[in-house]
Amino acid sequence: MRRTISYGRQTIDEDDIRAVISALRSDHLTQGPLCEEFEKAICGYTGARYAVACANGTAALHLACMAAGVGKGDSVITSPVTFLASANCAVYLGAAPLFADIDPLTFNISPDEVEKKLKCNSNVKAIIPVHFAGLPADMEAISKAARKRGIVIIEDACHALGALLRTDNGKWTRAGDCSHSDMTVFSFHPVKSITTGEGGAITTNDRKLYERLKTLRAHGVVKDPASFVNGTQAPWYYEMHSPGFNYRLSDVQCALGVSQMRKLDKFIERRRDLAALYSGLLSKYSFIKTQMVPDGRLSAFHLFPVRIPFRDMGVSKKEWFSLMDDLGIRLQVHYIPLHLQPFFQNEFGYRKGDFPAAEELYSEEVSLPIYPLLTDEEAGFITEAIISTIACAAASPKSIAREDRAGA
Ligand SMILES: *Cc1c(COP(=O)(O)O)cnc(C)c1O
């Protein structure tokens, strides 16, 4: 029996398990020395000066927005094609998400659409470009537009640990080095490039942001006597100048993170090989479109999104999904555009039709399984299954009848 194949999964080996066991035997279960070691490893890899590890990617986005000073009355620009957290982080602080439509070829936020939003909205505090599927967004164009207006850039690189971007002067930079942003956010959820179970991090080159992020991560507690408002009083003394959170990452998790970071390059290499294999296998079927990777960008291939024109082919995406599921292939769709969520519609007045490129992508997109442990043979099996099930779904009178009813 073939095992079921999900769209993504973790890679855990005996080294990882040993690292976690040894952390469990240490003095520190919550944040301790392994947190600093993990942060150092993130800095070493990305090239950022500072890293702050925290509870998860959503907490990282929340901390980054708060450190950026996002608050009531502000707007925060992000892509409608992302996970809920990229917009919720603004909402937590009383700000409004301002979506800007995507580029239909790269599936990333369109710099032209960002520019249009900036021209018509004077209250934009931050832009959160998302590196969709691991492909860096057009950071040079976005940062030009933002910097001349003094707007903070927070990269949502939850898909993109291991991605590379070539700058105008020809230098390759890593996602997370913040050469085009103020802060970059990562997630270590099991389907991401590396995992700590749950986990996240923010990188920055700005010392003030770094200090603020660390304070906010742990209740807003200030321990440096030089910063005290009421002067040094006693050894146990600390102050709180504004409330923070408990968004710490435990040393047990950081042990896993340190161990996983050592394998990150291998993980990314395997993802790139699989992406090349899929691209080759799918190139015979011109109706299937893959994500365009512009010159000067290397994706981390968190996802392998493809576009299939189901409507034109008379195929019900839902029916086809269940045919693939019957074969043990658990696909996923990234994402239901955020402006179609009831909350964003009710609270901020978004409507269906607002972002046509995002909606068009949603109707066609599926994410094929991609993760280091997926075999070449499985990728071949998945590709064949896509073609044979599409042929079946197109020929099935049941599926056509249902489509007709839906369209009537
Ligand atoms: C995974 C993800 C997040 C949230 O990360 P968590 O660690 O699950 O909280 C945010 N943004 C994007 C684009 C993601 O894929």
Please render the helix and strand layout as text.
Blueprint: E1 5-6, H1 14-24, H2 33-46, E2 50-54, H3 57-67, E3 75-78, H4 85-91, E4 96-99, H5 111-120, E5 124-128, H6 139-147, E6 152-156, E7 164-166, E8 172-174, E9 183-187, E10 200-204, H7 207-217, E11 221-222, E12 239-240, H8 251-261, H9 264-282, E13 289-290, E14 297-298, E15 304-307, H10 310-313, H11 317-326, E16 329-330, H12 342-348, H13 356-364, E17 365-368, H14 376-395, H15 397-407
Parallel strand pairs: 1-16, 3-4, 3-5, 5-6, 6-9
Antiparallel strand pairs: 2-10, 7-8, 7-14, 9-10, 11-12, 13-15, 15-17
Helix pairs in contact: 1-8, 2-8, 3-4, 3-7, 5-6, 9-14, 11-14
The chain binds pyridoxal-5'-phosphate (PLP).
Structural description of this entry:
This protein is of the alpha/beta class and 408 residues long. It is globular and about 80 Å long. A hairpin with a 5-residue loop joins β7 (164-166) and β8. The protein has 15 helices and 17 strands. The protein folds into two domains: 5-261, Type I PLP-dependent aspartate aminotransferase-like (Major domain) (Aspartate Aminotransferase, domain 2); 264-406, Aspartate Aminotransferase, domain 1 (Alpha-Beta Complex), CATH 3.90.1150.10. 40% of the residues lie in helices and 14% in strands. The strands form five sheets. A seven-stranded mixed β-sheet has the order 2-10-9-6-5-3-4, sandwiched between helices. It has a three-stranded antiparallel β-sheet with strand order 8-7-14, with no helix packed on it. A three-stranded antiparallel β-sheet has the order 13-15-17. Residues 56-58, 82-83, 85-86, 130, 156, 158-159, 187, 189, 200 line the site of pyridoxal-5'-phosphate.
